[in-house]
Design brief:
12 strands; binds pyridoxal-5'-phosphate; Aspartate Aminotransferase, domain 2; single chain; globular; Aspartate Aminotransferase, domain 1; 361 residues; alpha/beta
């Protein structure tokens, strides 16, 4: 007899983002800003002072305070993790049990059902309507029909960029009964319908945040869960004690103190996304193409088209990476700098002139 991997992991493949050297990266919803040089210098000084021989602070106190201060919430509601991905895994594996009923929505961030699959939860998928909007009454019925223990979704949604209003989100939390509601607000810095500030008031709500998007610190892996003190105590108890390394904690604390810089940059990203959306729409309207371009509440634009795969491949050949979703025959284009966005739009239009218009003539 020899050890055999159990069935659920045997056929999995490691997560592989787009590899290769593309001059323009619009595929991962990252911020197009790196940190400015003076901030990098400040970070260098911080690193020089670190006691590398010591374990990190398990409660990430300094970082928790800086994060709390940035969003005007209380430190006692916050749990810090190694990216929100770590928290997603903890939610399905530690807060849920094997056999717990987890409701996800579709389209949405695929990691929710992935971790639930690994944790042997029962997964129930609520299909959004064709405009990719969530009808909260329908979702509530779906949750009750399936006896949901947890519902989890992103607001605004990755990959569609669509969102539900804070009133709808409240209605969902208030109507969910004893079901845990997890709202992943990874992109809420680009919109204004957050429940973050009121998370403390609910018995059944967890709001997730990350430093990977608007804050522009995907490289140091910081995620945050915000909930009432009872839930927070549980989350702090189930995470591994030294989950966030000292460098990330110290650098994160430093970054969240740069309030003006962060807000300024979020606004710049919002501005570029709007222009990108308008420019894509112009091309689509100009040639009267049956493409669907979705109004976005995030830092990317979602485009549905039968040509998604071909456009994606052509862009790669020209050094531009965007995200392609075979399942939805769609592209998700993260906003870059003005220059990068222009280059994308030029190539997008070129493809249409060369391949779509010619063929239809
Ligand atoms: C990018 C993203 C995250 C961030 O995950 P990290 O592990 O913090 O980098 C979380 N949720 C959604 C919906 C995302 O798109």
């Amino acid at each position: 007899m020899a050890y055999k991997l159990c069935k659920k992991v045997r056929e999995l493949e490691p997560y592989e983002p787009i590899q290769g050297n593309y001059k323009i990266r619009l595929d991962a919803n990252e911020s197009f800003f790196n940190f400015p040089d003076d901030l990098k210098a400040e970070i260098n000084d911080i690193i020089r002072e670190i006691d590398f021989n010591r374990y990190p602070d398990p409660m990430a106190l300094e970082l928790t305070k800086a994060f709390a201060d940035y969003y005007s919430i209380s430190p006692e509601n916050i749990t810090v993790t190694n990216g929100s991905d770590e928290m997603l895994y903890l939610l399905s594996s530690a807060l849920m049990k094997s056999g717990s009923n987890v409701v996800v929505v579709d389209p949405d961030f695929s990691m929710y059902s992935f971790y639930s699959f690994l944790s042997e939860n029962n997964i129930f998928t609520y299909k959004k309507n064709k405009d990719h909007d969530i009808n909260v009454d329908e979702l509530l019925s779906f949750m009750f029909e399936n006896n949901a223990d947890m519902v989890i979704f992103s607001n605004p949604c990755n990959p569609t960029g669509r969102g539900i209003s804070s009133d709808d989100a409240r209605k969902l939390v208030n109507g969910a009964g004893d079901c845990l509601v997890v709202i992943d607000e990874a992109y809420m810095d680009f919109w204004n319908q957050s429940l973050l500030k009121e998370a403390n008031e609910y018995q059944n709500l967890i709001v997730l945040k990350t430093a990977s998007k608007a804050v522009g610190a995907a490289g140091i892996r910081l995620g945050f869960a915000i909930a009432n003190p009872l839930i927070t105590k549980a989350l702090r108890s189930v995470k591994s004690p030294y989950n966030v390394n000292t460098l990330s904690q110290k650098i994160g604390a430093c970054i969240y103190r740069k309030k003006d810089l962060l807000k300024e940059r979020a606004n710049e990203i919002i501005k570029n996304t709007k222009t990108l959306y308008i420019d894509i729409l112009k091309v689509v309207d100009n040639y009267k193409l049956p493409f669907r371009v979705f109004i976005t509440c995030a830092n990317f634009v979602f485009v549905e088209t039968d040509y998604a795969k071909n456009i994606y491949e052509m862009l790669l050949e020209n050094g531009i990476a965007v995200r392609y979703f075979p399942k939805y025959s769609s592209l998700r284009i993260t906003t870059g700098t003005v220059k990068e966005n222009n280059e994308f739009v030029i190539n997008f239009e070129k493809y249409i002139i060369k391949n779509i218009l010619k063929r239809n003539r």
